[in-house]
Structure prediction request, 394 residues.
Amino acid sequence: MLPAARLQAAIELLDEIIAAARDGGAAADTLIQRYFRTRRYAGSKDRRAVRDLVYRAIRGFGEAPASGRAAMIGLTAEDPELLPLFDGSPHGPEPIGEGEAGASATPLPAWLRTRFASTVDDTDIASLSGRAPLDIRVNLSRTTREEVLAAIPDAEPGRLSASSVRLPDGFRIEDHALWHEGHVDIQDEGSQLLVDAADPRAGTTIVDLCAGAGGKTLALWDRTGGKARIVACDTDRARLSRLAPRAARSGFTDIETRLLDPGKEAAALGDLDRGADLLFVDAPCSGTGTWRRNPEARWRLTDKRIAGFVAAQHHILEFAAPLVAPGGILLYAVCSLLAAEGEDQIANFLTSRSDFRKVDCDTIGGVASGQGYLLTPARHGTDGFFFARLERSC
Ligand SMILES: C[S@@+](CC[C@H](N)C(=O)[O-])C[C@H]1O[C@@H](n2cnc3c(N)ncnc32)[C@H](O)[C@@H]1O
Prediction:
């Protein structure tokens, strides 16, 4: 394909991606795969070049552009070499019309700016559309961070968490013996810091209420050397079923899993009433803190979706609170920097549950925000998170 034809392909694909984002259709990756399935003439270099153009637009425009063409014209502002490709050739885009405007680069949809926590500044917001590094968590019950650093040239110790290692660009840890032997797992340093903030202890009962595929459950196990009772719950069968094989790779045993029925969670957790010394709530959220990994999510977020997440978090906190033992800890976290999902959610919780109080965990290095803390890519080099450590009175 000639460069102009690649540009036209990117325009067509972006039109589909923009429509899918608006109508709740397939993700960009799926649409790109489908597009090339019916265009066998495109070789691997063509596909890579088109994909690169598409993702430059997705990352560059926080607000969905009016069209694929507007996006590509917008990209010419930072990449003038694209300009001559609007050449009207048989497979290329039409020449840019006089006064035809391109999309403007913005880090996020304008309506969303006021929704962020009060401590989030423009540098934090800009950092959400950067590129994310790849971090691993060292299983400290199996090896040491020094050994892992010695085995991976150019790997660096994480800045804030003692278990974290930052991999050099493009390093494939899944091909490395350390991964196959279960000595390391892929996990953003921010997620590791949440586990640091939870401070899990051996000899206690720990409930990981929104365990998903168990990323943080495994970290909780590792920190306690497997000497705590760990109950991992989720409402999503497919996600929860991925926990057991992951645990097996690391040699982590005896993790109890419970599949919860949405709306009937309390009934399945009755035996744990006042029984959790640590209740970890890694709640479902809008994911505004993980835009570096999923920039297309900015085009899909709506007021209604945010309200849905806020309601789900409220519901989870309501059935979670009774499970915390007197003197026990509820660690609440979301990978979002929106006030409604973080500081406001916890302020409301503490207003309605006077048996809980905020506990400081300044040592983690987060930015104090309401009754909790924020982690941001700009300040901490991690994904964006809000977390709060709450203690139930005895
Ligand atoms: C942020 S993800 C958890 C990620 C996971 N902790 C990890 O470290 O990989 C939120 C999880 O909450 C689960 N969830 C949603 N509603 C729930 C509910 N009512 N009770 C328990 N889990 C729920 C979702 O299925 C999802 O897996």
About this structure: The CA atoms of residues 214 and 243 lie 5 Å apart. Residues 209-213, 215-216, 233-236, 239, 260, 262, 265, 282, 284, 312, 316 surround S-adenosylmethionine (CB under 6 Å). The mean pLDDT is 96.
